[in-house]
Amino acid sequence: MDEGKTGKMLYKAIKNKVLKNDAALEKNFVGIVSDQAASMIGPYKGVAKRLKNDFPYIVATNDLSHISHLITKHSVKSYPSQTLQIIKDLSNHFAKSCQRRAKFRSVQKKMKLLKIYDIKNFTKVRWLSLAASLSRIINLWEPLKIYFEKYGEDDEINHFTFQNELYLRNLLSLLELLVHYNLECQKQKLLYDQLLLIIQESFIIFAKMVVSEDRTQLSYDELSKIPFKAKVEELAPFIVSLENFRERWIQEHTDIQALVSQLPLTTQTKIFEDTMKLVLKILSEIQKRLPFEDQIGNKPKLYF
Question: Alpha carbon of 251 to those of 6, 173, 254, 260, 274: distances in Å?
Fold first, then answer.
């Protein structure tokens, strides 16, 4: 949408239909939160800029849960596409077929599982559906394997390898953290200082996965100076080796140790290399997108 035209229309709507030239309302107008559409945040003609011209004291920032979704969306693109395709394939297989879902439930009943579940749909426009769908796939990995061995095509059966399972489990571990912080940002009545702590904590958690051992105890302010947006070669002085990352990850995720032992070292190395790249991409996106230095980041430093 055109920044100037749409920004002007929205600005007038807020002024005329929300604030209504009411002095009491204007006095209590403290800020605006929006997505990252040009019409909302454009530096010259966006709604936020227009409103700040009228009310210089207001806080204008972006919706953190929307930013969190963008971090996830752009980060996962760095992960092997064939891994993401597995999630889409398994979700789509059951999405529009009652007969397939019934057969899958039958498989679970024969396994005498305590609860019977369907595979959750993965939909791009639903922010948290990727993690939800993948979580259900991992939890039902064995029933799914049995189902596809009986009813599936060869390409579907081939999804169920130790290599693919490890790729998916590593991805889920990171997605669950991203979802956690997304939901934290959606909580009601959060104060600025609480939002700042959520932003900083999310950055620290991911940073400590990859920084060198002597940097794991650094504060947020110190960690934030590491240029995660730089190329991997330039990051070398700040981060662990691939082998140390692999050892650290396996130590933290004890549930994958048996799975890892089933794979040759060369395959393990490639999987953990891709996992480490994803962590670095997440950190790069966090540094790029989260408002560490705008008003929502600076005001808590002034008042709390």
Answer: 52, 13, 6, 12, 18
